[in-house]
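Please fill in the sequence for the structure shown.

STRUCTURE ENCODING:
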């Protein structure tokens, strides 16, 4: 036989979760048309740049990721050489250590 305290606790927890779910649903506006969004980006409009992979790009398999962006690798630039820190200073960072 089931423990009545545990059964009551389970029922109350289920009711709380249901209440919170319905509360969130009431506060959330449902968008049924893409024209209602402020900004829309279509997969076909994703440019073919290094580091961007989209399912609509040529050579991509349909079962691959729909959209993936890699972090760009931008070399550090300084307005003047910083000895020991940049390659433009004439010494590598390994030599200064």
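FILLED IN BY: designer on duty
SEQUENCE:
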């Amino acid at each position: 036989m089931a423990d009545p305290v545990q059964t009551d606790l389970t029922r109350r927890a289920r009711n709380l979760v249901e209440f919170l779910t319905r509360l969130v649903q009431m506060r959330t506006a449902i968008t049924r048309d893409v024209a209602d969004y402020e900004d829309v980006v279509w997969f076909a409009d994703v440019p073919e740049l290094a580091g961007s992979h989209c399912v609509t790009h040529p050579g991509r398999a349909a079962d691959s990721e729909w959209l993936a962006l890699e972090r760009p690798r931008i070399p550090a630039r300084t307005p003047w050489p910083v000895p020991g820190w940049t390659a433009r200073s004439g010494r590598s960072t390994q030599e200064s250590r």
